[in-house]
Design a protein that fits this description.
By secondary structure, this protein is of the alpha+beta class. The protein has 2 domains: 2-183, no CATH class; 204-321, no CATH class. It has helices spanning 2-10, 22-31, 38-48, 54-64, 97-100, 127-136, 171-183, 204-210, 268-280, 310-321, and strands at 69-72, 76-82, 89-90, 93-94, 102-110, 113-123, 148-150, 156-157, 160-169, 215-217, 220-225, 232-233, 236-237, 246-254, 257-266, 284-289, 295-296, 300-308. It has a 6-stranded antiparallel beta sheet with strand order 1-2-5-6-9-7. Strands 10-11-14-15-18-16 form a 6-stranded antiparallel beta sheet.
């Protein structure tokens, strides 16, 4: 069933059972005046998915975001929406939106509910309306709706603010709320058309050196490396793919060179060592901060930017990862 789900989601199709609202009805509900009434909204949301399997719920959630969802490790639904309206540069290097400018949502089942972690990329003038719209949704638990608000990269043009948050509750209700928040920004809301461009480099050596299986999409190759600890947020055990691993993304810039952005997940005792390795290897360290308020054990994230050959950058990345309690590289 899950293999079929992957195929359906990749084709942006959704199974509609009798009585479902479907995308038109869902978006009509989302934009209707009745949305602001919590009682009306709760009743309408409950009618969406009375008794359906987890996989069908993920289909409904994916449909709300234009059918862009994919299933990742642990039956977690990941939705990534690049800000194709922005044409950014990082230290003067043109970058694709999928490299560093995107909204990212992860949904993990928790019984009949879900824990949802989300990240938005906002222009500075969008922050206030974003917060007003987010807080008006009454997502629960209210104390953890917003976990961080900061920038990830020095030298990024346009300047953007990344916001991170967590919510627990009905996954469809949360998806509708996040979709409404997304609509108040300049993020694209139409069904995303995936780029058919090749990567421009061979990702196999990156996978072999760093370890694990990556994904190439929208001209960007991304690979995630989980940590070995078990993490809990709000007393819920998180799947390793729920934004608690290290993430590395590579984009070709021509002449055999790639740009890499890193997002190392580190505990406090590891942070200084990782930053020093990156800096002495020619990376530009751009941020060190946390993304969550209620994660245990606490993680911090090291962001950096570098340009070089894919193999050279992958070796530096793996060397830094070896100083952390992360999954080891796959045997050669």
């Amino acid at each position: 069933m899950r293999e079929k789900l992957k195929e359906h989601l990749s084709r942006r199709t959704v199974v509609r059972a009798g009585g479902h609202l479907g995308v038109a009805g869902t978006l009509a509900l989302l934009m209707s005046p009745a949305w602001s009434g919590s009682r009306t909204h709760a009743a309408a949301t409950a009618a969406l998915l009375p008794h359906h399997s987890e996989d069908v719920i993920w289909k409904q959630v994916s449909e709300i975001f234009g059918g862009t969802g994919v299933i990742v490790l642990g039956n977690v639904l990941m939705i990534k929406i690049p800000r194709s309206d922005l044409h950014g540069t990082l230290f003067g290097t043109p970058i694709r939106s999928a490299l560093a400018l995107f909204a990212l949502f992860h949904f993990q089942h928790v019984g009949t509910q879900a824990i949802v972690k989300y990240e938005f990329t906002l222009l500075e003038h969008e922050v206030s309306v974003f917060l007003d719209t987010l807080f008006a949704q009454n997502l629960q638990p209210a104390t953890s709706v917003l976990g961080a608000q900061h920038n990830h990269f020095l030298g990024l043009d346009p300047r953007v603010i990344h916001t991170h948050g967590t919510s627990v509750g009905d996954p469809v209700q949360i998806a509708l709320a996040l979709r409404r928040v997304l609509a108040r920004t300049g993020s694209p809301l139409e069904e995303v058309v995936r780029s058919s461009d090749g990567l421009g480099f061979d990702p196999a050596p990156i996978e072999q050196i760093i370890g694990g299986k990556g994904e190439g999409r929208d001209g960007v190759f991304s690979i995630t490396v989980p940590r070995l600890e078990r993490f809990h947020e709000l007393d819920i055990e998180l799947a390793p793919s729920l934004q608690i691993g290290s993430l590395f993304a590579f984009q070709s810039i021509g002449n055999g060179q790639v740009a890499e952005v890193t997002d190392f997940a580190v505990i406090p005792q590891e942070a200084d060592t990782v930053v020093r390795i990156l800096r002495f290897s020619g990376h530009m360290n751009t941020a060190l901060h946390n993304h969550e308020l209620f994660l245990h054990p606490m993680l911090f994230y090291v962001h950096s930017f570098a340009i070089g050959s894919p193999v050279e950058l992958a070796r530096v990345t793996r060397h830094a990862l070896n100083q952390t309690r992360s999954r080891p590289a796959s045997p050669a």
